[in-house]
């Protein structure tokens, strides 16, 4: 109700798939849950200073994104804060470990990781376009991190972050499942992308680069392929649109939940593949691109459905 009275509404536009204004900025509720749990658990475990730079980066993204939800800041203002947050996150990572398994010199490893992280933050925002998708993705990646680290008997301090985010994501889905009563807004999706990206960096540094690429593979594929296609077609790729595979499917059939079901099933498949790779070897991860390709083809077919 506070979001309604403050008129923080997501009005239908060229990117939207809803027909009436819906309160946005609901991501604040996630941070009111995640941050206190995170701080308390870190203080108890003596990990507060381990995560201090990550907290600073997250807090900066929450603030700039909340301001953007209220009065639409410039892209330059947003990207500068995004870059600052990524630098804070990179400082929080173990400094003597490589994200890309020694493929690059350490200084170049961090630059490439930073660029990838910056893209992941923004693609998470781009992919927040139908009811339930961001909550489901957050729950999937967070639970994936938890299961992989438990099964690998490598439980990092960041387990606390993943557990808090998974719980908050499930709680938010109650309000955001189709038909959504509340949207995340940038204040939700941008910091979520940041912390999900951090969890994947931790997996990679722990020796599970393939799994780190596999868990969010559908999100990365849909956003990246759509961006590349728009660039090739010489469209203004930086402008709002609804050309993602999932958006076109939802637009065609008019039912967000019917689009979310195959996405959730695919994510479960990706999680099973990731777990299988722990026991069968990394070759098992080769099934992941085929699974995602199948989903994209299915969504493309749905997009041609006539209501």
Any overview of this molecule?
It is a single chain. This protein has one domain. It has 307 residues and is an all-alpha fold. The model is unreliable at 1-7 (pLDDT under 50). It has helices at 2-5, 27-45, 52-71, 75-92, 106-126, 133-151, 159-176, 186-205, 209-214, 217-232, 245-253, 256-280, 287-303, and strands at 9-10, 22-23. A two-stranded antiparallel sheet has the order 1-2. Helix 5 (106-126) packs across helix 10, helix 6 (133-151) packs antiparallel against helix 7 (159-176) and helix 6 (133-151) runs parallel beside helix 12 (256-280).
**Tally of contiguous helical segments:** 13
Helix content: 55-70%
> Low-confidence parts lasting 5 or more residues at pLDDT below 50?
1-7
How many strands appear in the DSSP assignment?
2
Strand order of the largest sheet: 1-2
Largest sheet: 2 strands, antiparallel
Mean pLDDT: 88
- Tertiary shape: globular
H/E element sequence: HEEHHHHHHHHHHHH
The proportion of strand residues reads under 5%
Structural class: mainly alpha
Rg, Cα atoms, Å: 19 Å
Number of self-contained structural domains: 1
First CA to last CA: what distance? 34 Å
Strand-helix topology:
Blueprint lengths: L1 H4 L3 E2 L11 E2 L3 H19 L6 H20 L3 H18 L13 H21 L6 H19 L7 H18 L9 H20 L3 H6 L2 H16 L12 H9 L2 H25 L6 H17 L4
Antiparallel strand pairs: 1-2
Helix pairs in contact: 2-7, 2-8, 3-4, 3-8, 4-5, 5-8, 5-10, 6-7, 6-8, 6-12, 10-13, 11-12, 11-13, 12-13
């Amino acid at each position: 109700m506070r979001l309604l009275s403050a008129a923080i509404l997501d009005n239908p536009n060229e990117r939207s798939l809803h027909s009436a204004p819906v309160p946005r900025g609901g991501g604040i509720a996630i941070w009111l849950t995640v941050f206190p749990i995170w701080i308390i658990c870190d203080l108890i475990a003596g990990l507060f200073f381990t995560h201090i730079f990550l907290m600073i980066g997250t807090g900066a993204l929450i603030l700039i994104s909340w301001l953007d939800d209220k009065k639409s800041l410039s892209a330059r203002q947003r990207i500068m804060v995004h870059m600052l947050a990524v630098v804070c996150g990179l400082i929080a990572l173990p400094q003597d470990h490589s994200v890309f398994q020694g493929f690059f010199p350490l200084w170049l490893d961090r630059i490439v990781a930073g660029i990838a992280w910056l893209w992941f933050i923004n693609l998470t925002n781009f992919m927040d376009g139908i009811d339930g998708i961001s909550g489901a993705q957050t729950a999937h990646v967070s639970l994936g991190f938890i299961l992989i680290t438990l099964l690998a008997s490598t439980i990092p301090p960041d387990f606390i972050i993943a557990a808090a985010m998974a719980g908050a994501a499930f709680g938010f889905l109650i309000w955001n499942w189709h038909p959504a009563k509340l949207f995340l807004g940038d204040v939700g999706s941008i910091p979520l992308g940041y912390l999900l990206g951090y969890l994947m960096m931790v997996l990679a540094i722990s020796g599970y680069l393939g799994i780190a690429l596999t868990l969010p593979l559908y999100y990365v594929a849909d956003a990246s392929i759509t961006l590349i296609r728009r660039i090739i077609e010489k469209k203004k790729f930086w402008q709002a649109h609804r050309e993602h595979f999932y958006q076109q499917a939802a637009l065609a059939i008019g039912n967000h939940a019917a689009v979310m079901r195959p996405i959730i099933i695919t994510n479960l498949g990706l999680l099973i593949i990731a777990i299988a790779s722990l026991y069968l070897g990394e070759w098992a991860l080769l099934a992941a691109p085929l699974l995602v390709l199948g989903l994209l083809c299915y969504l493309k077919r749905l997009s041609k459905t006539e209501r």
